[in-house]
Write a structure and sequence with these properties.
By secondary structure, the protein is mainly beta. It is 0% helix and 50% strand. The chain contains no helices and 11 strands.
Length: 121
């Protein structure tokens, strides 16, 4: 069974950095692609980044390319999202998800509970 728990969210000033972590307590983590999504206030959930099971391929939404980096450590059952150059527009609840390599939420079967990221100006 996949159980995802995010951590690392918080309040940061514009231009700052945060690193999100998402740990799976199950045993099947290496078989799943992992994704990060976010839901800004009053908006729908949107794709942020995804990484293949072996970490060999990644993809990002255009607005975070060059600022965010997704990575994973299969030995630790953990996926990370390093966020640099944070902007006010990055404020959202961030979710990790396990499923198939895709930018579509429907490709992901398992979801964490989310962690709040707030960027102040």
């Amino acid at each position: 069974q996949v159980q995802l728990v995010e951590s690392g969210g918080g309040l940061v000033q514009a231009g700052g950095s945060l690193k999100l972590s998402c740990k799976d307590s199950g045993r099947t983590f290496p078989s799943f692609a992992m994704g990060w999504f976010r839901q800004p206030p009053g908006k729908e959930r949107e794709f942020v980044a995804t990484i293949k099971p072996n970490g060999g391929n990644t993809d990002y939404r255009d607005s975070v390319k060059g600022r965010f980096t997704i990575s994973r450590d299969n030995a630790k059952n953990t996926v990370y999202l390093q966020m640099n150059g944070l902007q006010v527009e990055d404020t959202a609840v961030y979710f990790c998800a396990a499923g198939s390599y895709s930018g579509h939420p429907r490709a992901y079967e398992f979801w964490g509970q989310g962690t709040q990221v707030t960027v102040s100006s």
